[in-house]
Amino acid sequence: MSDPTRDNGVQLRSALDQVPAYVPGKSASAPEGVTAYKISSNENPYSPLPSVLEVVREAAGSINRYPDMAVTELTQVLADTLGVPAEHIATGTGSVGVLGQVIAATCDPGDEVVYAWRSFEAYPIVTALAGASSVQVGLDDHARHRLDAMHAAITDRTKVVIVCTPNNPTGPMVTHAELERFLDAVPSRVLVVIDEAYVEFVTDEEAPRSLELYRDRPNVMVLRTFSKAYGLAGLRIGYAVAHPPVASALRKTATPFGVNSIAQAAAVASLKAFDELKERVDALVAERTRVVELLRGQGWFIPETQANFVWFGLGERSGDFAAAAQEAGLTLRQYGTDGVRATIGETEANDVLIQVAGDFLAANPVEPPDTQATDTDDPR
């Protein structure tokens, strides 16, 4: 019998050597006697609506059957809700799944994908899996996209540009005027993905009107998800709005039957119950405002977040802060030596975050961003 531990000569793609591992948010844990809160994954802290749960229970009765591969009902409900043609909708397993479809449909080995950094951790993964190259453009001192620098980074090899707004993990959005100017300057051969995973939490009147921008530009698509505001993270469903050639390509590169029947039913029910869901979103936005104001009152520089999280740009002290929070029962999301992200969760969790942050800052004063070194002179 052969030894399975021996090298059997199987040849794997060399591109895999360039694929970074996705680091998920850690599960909640705490010292004995301390309440544990998980605010590391930008999840909605509320349980699904009772009406949505009832639909999920009903849909579970038919899981012996394959789901509708065309995702017909949800596609039509999305089209009606957004005011776009149904053929402009493509679905996938969360927005990250759709993003993988985008890169698979556009990039050959050696092509380039331009995006801000730090931004969503899946971008370098899906890019490397296609054998393409990431072109990462540093954020500015206030953790915002530098769209002019992103434009300067576009070359003849660029196939896709991703604009994450609000930006995960730092929080700021780009404005409509900024994005419009950027899109006007991007070559029409380059696909621009406006990643709006957190769009439902945006309250700023200067936010991008992304569907308006897509309608006038065949090379612009909008990417959204049901994981965050809708609270369906465990069911993995997202969608894109794009012009027919792009939307058709996304459907071709989708995993057959990837969007399961329970996810489809829950998404439809959630769209129909959005007024009820909006009350929860509004409550999270109000908590976000409270948390940001209190943290800034302590002396923290917190970027202008329009998402359901806040960013602590702590650099080398990121690990110390994450460890201090863990001792208090808070599981945060550390990004190496760049910073730490904290999701707006239950009020009790937010109160612990404020206490931990105040204690940490008192013992470890943090310099404001305008005195810290930046890479804003480097277009990449």
Structure notes:
- With 380 residues, this protein is an alpha/beta fold.
- It has two domains: 23-46 and 274-363, Aspartate Aminotransferase, domain 1; 50-272, Type I PLP-dependent aspartate aminotransferase-like (Major domain) (Aspartate Aminotransferase, domain 2), CATH 3.40.640.
- Helix content is 36%, strand content 14%.
- The protein has a seven-stranded mixed β-sheet with strand order 2-8-7-6-5-3-4, with helices on both faces. Strands 9-12-11 form a three-stranded antiparallel β-sheet, with helices on one face.
- The termini are far apart.
- Residues 371-380 have low confidence and may be disordered.
- The modification N6-(pyridoxal phosphate)lysine is found at residue 228.
- It comes from Pedococcus bigeumensis.
- Its EC number is 2.6.1.57.
